[in-house]
Specification:
homodimer, alpha/beta, 4-stranded antiparallel sheet, 11 strands
């Protein structure tokens, strides 16, 4: 494709996206197709000859769109919001168009420098001290893996330079609440700790880690000859946005010589609101922190910010310095390949730059406050409605709920919950998901799509009330 | 930004990219700025209020472009080509515009299904058997980390479900050539093996792994009570595109019960040419394989394909199944989160789809053959020129070279090599990099930018000859 052909089709693609975003609200939120339906309609073998890209947008409409679940839909209430704002999209287009790769500073200085600056802007926006330095990773799963490896290496005084985990005399242990994200356990297993050395610490009634139980687990392991290594605090759990007590956990981590990693993948965005910052009080006592601008804040996926206080330690764990990557400027410049796992990196800072410039801090704050207010409104409706039960506190924008008529308990209640959820999801009018809280299924209403206004939440609440009447109970 | 505002500015962005690609050839290839120059010109604090995005493109020209090293420039001969073809860019735009995230199949069925199909198209294009299944990762560094973790878990029969590497009685060992990519050692260290258990196997005169030395190392470790775990073969090393003997290594891996991972990040693309496939003869004996369509082939970064023969094993190592990700279709559909480290994933298959459809297999083949022919031409010029020395075979598109006048040896020769390299790079006329081969610096000429024709290579050769006269010797 020549630049001129790209110009022509590129305009059509921009128009297609603008039209898609305009009409997204009219489409069924969750894709209605069955497994295999998309693939069945596409050629099983690659084309021998090229074809003009004019057919592309027709195929997007006919073959791809039916297989899309619309995350940018105002009735998308599932998982967490993943706002791919159109201002951020423009920055992402520019990154794609430039086609540069940040193997080192010299491979495109602007890529490294804007990334460090954007990480610093977000640091300031979230009220973190200057002690933190950050860079962009793909996802919180990866950042948490990096954190646990850094913890492992601090505890073992760089065993990777010797025999690795294979040379350590006493096993290291990782601690996180039973409500922590699946990626924490996955990271611990991938980093070689082993399931036997990962502790799921019990939570309190608000689904936040119980610090007395953490102290007990740390003390038990130490007494029995194991080495407490890393504690993971979650600020905004996936099920219910519960808030672990970061300050108390920081104290315990310090007392037991552990690394403290804070998973604020979702709730980190809320810290651009000063009134929310008590939610992670004690954050300056942590060693590392991940927050995802590609969720609620509005950066296009993938954009996960990983901050540490000790960059030198991070680089010592992650650095490589082969001859073919050395440059005359290495001594004066930062090479971000040494801040994470991948060597190559896209110019991802552009999509943060266009987002923050276009919306401004005050614009982002106003949108998040709107969503918090919508969540409080929905919580109040549920609290006032007979037979409905809000099953967790609502510190942020996610409301966990059951319809709980008298006499319906146990597995029958679970069946009812999943039935009315599927009734809504199958309708295409809205998309929610479920989670297990306190041993029973609950429905999550996660508010915060860019286009979701109060009217959409009110419509959802009506649909929920209609669904429990029609879900076949 | 509303869809209509996005439509307006989006057209400007497309035009800016088309213009950029048209004029890229007129810009100095390597950025000429000094560390800190970009950041110094940008506001240190985020803007309180949003601004219209109209200033964006002016800022791209004034603040960002001077800090860009132009990977899409026809005189870019550094590292490896990273072709962000404009056909692929359009697919990437669509992915960004849709803004969907593939947490599981249901979160956008088309994302999963097109990704599996595109991995299968590339499998067919590279002549791999149907035994392989692949998915997209960000980079080969990450894929190689996944491979070594999978090897670790096969050898230990899933130690991650028990005590991890901390519970194993005998240390596991990883083997790769001394010319393997830095990411192999990094992956081994991150996976917990420890530097003491990573063997750098000597290479032969062509910089390919010596299988007799590998056998010796495997036997030594086994005799001394260690457990051979993983062998990594490189098809197309980074320094000189050397080709490890995959078939012989597969035999040894099988004999010693090791996992064989093949790093074909660069050379994998060449396998779309049937005449190149002897370069990885024996590939069907490997357990895993990574190749990067975001290099020579032309997919926009990031797009690294990781293939395995035993998907069930991969999923058993990588899977998580928290309640909040379960869906009614889990039993019938593939959830790609269980094929790698990150949970979230972009719709990256779209950029492969538009690339392959637009260029066709024959178009991609023709471009790669052009580049191979250009590399052979340059090698012939060097071979025929007095005082010039080609320091490695040229099986693919990279030519490693020294200007080696009589009497110039050792460190003086190194200084000369780095001086004429920097002379060219500083001029902005072309961009090359250096590597250490056989203990001495050599310059790499890595051909294969989409826009690089024979005339550009001929011009480079003239510049190289001029540079050695002017580099201050």
């Amino acid at each position: 494709v020549t630049p001129e052909e790209f110009r022509r089709v590129g305009h059509l693609v921009v128009d297609w996206i603008a039209d898609y975003r305009t009409r997204a609200a009219t489409l069924p939120v969750r894709s209605t197709i069955a497994p295999g339906d998309v693939r069945r309609r596409l050629p099983t073998t690659p084309p021998e000859r090229g074809e003009p890209l004019d057919t592309l947008l027709r195929d997007m409409d006919e073959m791809i769109l039916p297989g899309i679940t619309h995350w940018q839909h105002p009735q998308f209430f599932s998982y967490f919001p993943a706002n791919a704002t159109l201002s951020s999209a423009l920055g992402d287009f520019l990154s794609t168009g430039l086609g540069v790769i940040g193997l080192n500073w010299q491979a495109s200085p602007a890529l490294t420098e804007l990334e460090l600056l954007m990480a610093d802007w977000i640091r300031q926006m979230t009220g973190l001290s200057e002690a933190w330095s950050g860079a962009i990773h793909d996802t919180a799963s990866t950042a948490t893996l990096v954190a646990l490896i850094c913890a492992r290496e601090r505890t073992t005084r760089f065993s990777l330079q010797r025999g690795g985990l294979q040379g350590e005399p006493r096993p290291l242990v990782v601690y996180a609440s039973s409500e922590s994200h699946s990626s924490v356990q996955k990271a611990a297993l991938l980093a070689g700790f082993g399931r036997a050395h990962v502790r799921a610490i019990p939570v309190d009634d608000a689904f936040a880690l119980d610090p007395r139980a953490l102290r007990q687990a740390l003390a038990d392991d130490r007494r029995e000859g194991r080495v407490p290594c890393a504690v993971v605090a979650t600020v905004g759990t996936t099920s219910s946005t519960a808030l672990d007590p970061v300050g108390a956990m920081a104290d315990l981590a310090s007392e037991f010589g552990c690394w403290l990693h804070v998973d604020a993948a979702m709730a980190g965005a809320a810290m651009i609101l000063p009134e929310c910052r008590t939610m992670w009080a004690g954050i300056e006592g942590a060693d590392s922190l991940v927050l995802n601008p590609h969720k609620w804040l509005g950066a296009v996926m993938d954009c996960s910010l990983y901050y540490v206080r000790d960059v030198e330690h991070l680089v010592r764990v992650m650095s490589t310095n082969p001859s073919y990557l050395r440059t005359p400027t290495d001594a004066q410049a930062v090479n971000l390949r040494d801040w994470g796992i991948p060597l190559g990196r896209r110019f991802r800072a552009l999509k943060l730059w266009t987002l923050i410039r276009s919306e401004g801090v005050s614009g982002l704050q106003a949108r998040l406050r709107r969503d918090l207010e919508n969540a409080r409104w929905l919580a109040a409706q549920i609290d006032a409605a007979p037979e409905w039960e809000r099953v967790a506190p609502v510190p942020l924008q996610t409301v966990c709920v059951r319809h709980h008529p008298a006499g319906l308990e146990g597995e029958a209640l679970d069946r009812h919950t999943l039935a009315w959820l599927e009734h809504i999801n199958r309708s295409g009018d809205a998309f929610l998901n479920a989670t297990v809280l306190g041993g029973r299924w609950a429905v999550r209403v996660s508010i915060g799509s860019e286009t979701t206004e109060r009217a959409h939440v009110a419509m959802l609440w009506e649909r929920m009330q209609a669904a429990v009447r029609n879900a076949g109970i």
